[in-house]
Design a protein that fits this description.
rod-shaped, c-terminal domain of poly(a) binding protein, mainly alpha
Amino acid sequence: MPRSKNKVASHRRRKKILQRAKGYFGASSKLITVAKHRTDKGLQYAYRDRKAKKRTMRQLWITRINAATRMHGLSYSKFIHALSEKNIDINRKILADLAVNDEQAFADLVDFARQ
């Protein structure tokens, strides 16, 4: 009796890999072995960069807050220290949003922290 190879499962597995590799250049989207390596590497990059995205966004927020506080004659570190001493718990994402979109509210916050 011939060996059963379960063609349905193996075909579905290969099809899934090629579907993920759609849009890759050349053999990377056509050949199973190359596509498998490229998609595995792509998933590794995606995992790594989800962590890196959080770091870069925090850097952006800090840069925006620093620029806005310096317009009011205060440095970023002194502003954050003053907020923590006044027990104001606003995260950097919200502070950066205030600095960009609502300059008056941010100016009030800087004045309050400076007192």
